[in-house]
Design brief:
By secondary structure, this protein is mainly α. It has twelve helices and no strands.
Length: about 260
């Protein structure tokens, strides 16, 4: 450990070493690699696949999908990309706990708090970058890009925070990789159904979902307008911070005992 310290510092220190380990792990795991490439692949599939499908439904059944485009954007892009990036971070953290790597981090200069900070930052930044690419590539947000850009940026920022919250939620409650996969699937159901619920519920009933952090990226998204974006951004960021602080304390307690 001591002999390798100068080399580790020269290549970015403990965080740089962890990043290199993560990259090698991602390249070796087909599922995690697919999740990493998911935002671009999903966006291109929507861009090339949605117009012909929409035209077919309109011609054959008289179903027009344009009115529900905001729902598709919210469910398939705005919340789905953070789900993928958060799943990567959560699964890597649980794997580190399972194979005993976290025991080494506890006694290393990095420490568990910095390790978790790294995981959360990577998940949020990766989600933000994925959304910055996927939203315009998907072709589902032309009106938002032209007229509602501040609200769209607010929605993307709040959505990126959901990736970090997913990492914390899974590591706070999952004791194994199997349990973490179950929790990720449960989060996927919530992230998929929530945009539809916000869209179709009566305006007053929608606010029953306000305690859920993932509600706020949808609420400020252009096309929804459930909340004005400045107030929604403030409320969503505050709720995410409070939820994250609670999950972080629980996660640190679990990992310290682990």
């Amino acid at each position: 450990m001591r002999a390798g310290a100068p080399a580790a510092r020269a290549r970015g220190g403990a965080v740089g070493g962890l990043a290199r380990i993560d990259l090698r792990g991602l390249l070796r795991d087909p599922m995690l690699s697919a999740l990493l490439l998911g935002p671009a692949v999903l966006a291109l599939l929507l861009r090339w696949g949605f117009p012909p499908v929409s035209g077919f439904l309109a011609d054959r059944y008289g179903l027009h999908t344009e009115p529900v485009t905001p729902v598709l954007l919210a469910a398939l892009v705005v919340l789905h990309v953070p789900l993928m990036m958060g799943a990567i971070g959560a699964l890597r953290t649980v794997e580190d706990a399972d194979d005993g790597t976290l025991a080494l981090f506890r006694v290393s200069p990095l420490g568990l708090p910095r390790y978790l900070a790294y995981r959360l930052a990577v998940a949020a930044v990766a989600a933000a970058a994925g959304l910055a690419a996927a939203v315009p590539l998907s072709g589902l947000a032309p009106d938002a890009l032209a007229e509602g850009l501040p609200a769209l940026v607010a929605a993307v920022g709040l959505a990126a925070l959901q990736a970090a919250l997913l990492v914390l939620a899974v590591t706070a409650f999952a004791a194994s990789k199997v349990e973490s996969l179950v929790l990720v699937k449960a989060a996927g159901a919530v992230f998929t159904l929530l945009p539809a619920a916000v869209w179709w519920l009566p305006s007053r009933a929608v606010w029953l979902l306000a305690p859920v952090p993932a509600f706020w990226p949808v609420a400020v998204l252009p096309g929804y307008g459930a909340a004005p974006w400045p107030a929604g951004l403030a409320a969503g960021a505050a709720l995410s911070a409070l939820t994250g602080a609670w999950l972080l304390r629980r996660t640190l307690r679990r990992l310290e005992r682990g």
